[in-house]
Design brief:
Chains A, B: Pfam families: FCD, GntR. The structure is a homodimer. Chain A is mainly alpha-helical. Helix content of chain A is 67%, strand content 3%. Chain A has a two-stranded antiparallel sheet with strand order 1-2. In chain A, a hairpin with a 7-residue loop joins strand 1 and strand 2. In chain A, helix 5 runs parallel beside helix 10. Chain A is elongated. At the A-B interface, helix 1, helix 3, helix 4, helix 5 and helix 8 of A face helix 1, helix 3, helix 4, helix 5 and helix 8 of B. The structure holds a DNA duplex.
Chain lengths: 232, 232
DNA sequence: GACCACTGTATGGTCAGACCATATCTAACA
DNA sequence: TGTTAGATATGGTCTGACCATACAGTGGTC
């Protein structure tokens, strides 16, 4: 004991204080996407820290998809609150895949779970399937694996968006984006995409007529065809 | 036209270069959790940028749960690669809930999806249920809603961990952490927790005897009891 | 030899101040 | 009225300094 009072292990860093203050203000003032934060120099003065610390906090918020910074002057300049949960999720997954702290198997399992959920909800909600049809046409017209995958992504993305849950849709987009390269390789390895095409048609039709169970089965079969090595 | 050649809209910022370089090195050198990054000053010199820019990149990586920084000297000091997808996910969800860019309904739907998946896989895998039983005992002994929720979180977390998918388990933990406050209110509003207890016992037993379908149903019923206002 | 206190040093954390690039605003001017 | 030139506020970057921390070494003491 030192008799001077006690200090817990962790000192909070200056930028963490800034983060907490900003988060508090967001909650208290009810700030939402589109609202502006004070300029870095003003925040630094108000909070009694250096501009560097404010900037580090800004980087964190930007990384989390909560603010976006523009230079210059005027109503659109400075740090503006945004709402982009996708790109942080994508970065997160990509980096952790790179670090080998996640295996592709786990990512594909997660995708399986989300795709089934989204297809079921899209079918139940009687979603508009014109976007799906357009993506399908894009796949038919594709002349390279990369191009095919782009439209494939658009197809599955449309299902997720149609599910009506923005969080789950964001997860879906991030998963798909972070495994884009792997998908291209999978398509190249497969060579023939006619099986995938048939799967897509089956999914589209099941959703179109609101057949939930068939939509779920179709998605499941589709993933098994696309990544045969990962399914027993 | 200015005749001097053309410049695309977006200039990359210095810290973004640093990020790209570090990510490249992680991929090329096959760095994984536990490996150290060069010191900030060295990185700054190697990459030809200021230390501030390196620090901003570090904040980003730290936010994404990829590095962790320690001061001091020795083998454990400096920036060390880590693997914590949980805390970034939690921060992400908490901030976006605060920003009202996500609704609680969406978060609970996502939780529903993940809980069902995890319960099904835990049941199929014949998971050890001793952790679940311990959490159940903790809930029985709890004397406040906060305490109850802590053990409740532990219970559901154990199911997610038993599913064998680290990504999905991380999603589960993050979802649950970000809605901790809401859970406490829900328990207080409910008053009597005997219904929840019965649900937990039912889930535990279904997983214990490997009854996948019953586990899924039990989880679904449980969430309906816990958040009655969000289920039709 | 074993232990302990002191000093050195590499690390991240923080700050102050300067300058640049950019985008808008303002006022003078034609 | 339209245009242009300057003023200004913003983020982006750099430099250099100093602090706090925690280990590495060094030397002394027992």
């Amino acid at each position: 004991m030192d008799g001077t009072g006690w200090r817990p292990v962790k000192r909070t860093r200056a930028f963490e204080d800034v983060l907490a203050q900003i988060e508090r203000r967001i909650a208290e003032d009810g700030l939402t996407a589109g609202d502006r934060l004070p300029a870095e120099r003003h925040l630094a003065e108000q909070l009694g820290v250096s501009r560097s610390s404010v900037r580090e906090a800004m980087r964190v918020l930007e990384t989390l998809g909560v603010v976006s910074s523009q230079v210059g002057r005027g109503p659109d300049a400075g740090a503006v609150l945004t709402s982009r949960p996708d790109s942080p999720l994508t970065d997160l997954l990509r980096l952790h895949l790179g670090l080998a702290s996640l295996e592709m198997r786990e990512v594909i399992d997660a995708r399986h779970m989300i795709e089934q959920w989204a297809a079921a909800h899209a079918a139940t909600a009687g979603a508009d399937t014109s976007g799906l049809a357009a993506a399908l046409a894009g796949m038919d017209a594709a002349t390279s694996a990369e191009e095919f995958v782009e439209h494939d992504i658009a197809f599955h993305r449309a299902i997720a968006d149609a599910s009506g849950n923005r969080l789950i849709a964001a997860m879906m987009r991030s998963l798909r984006d972070s495994m884009r390269r792997y998908s291209v390789e999978a398509v190249q390895r497969l060579g023939d995409t006619s099986v995938l095409r048939a799967d897509h048609v089956r999914i589209l039709e099941a959703i179109g007529r609101g057949d939930r169970d068939e939509a779920v089965r179709a998605v499941s079969d589709h993933l098994a065809h696309a990544y045969p090595s990962l399914f027993r």
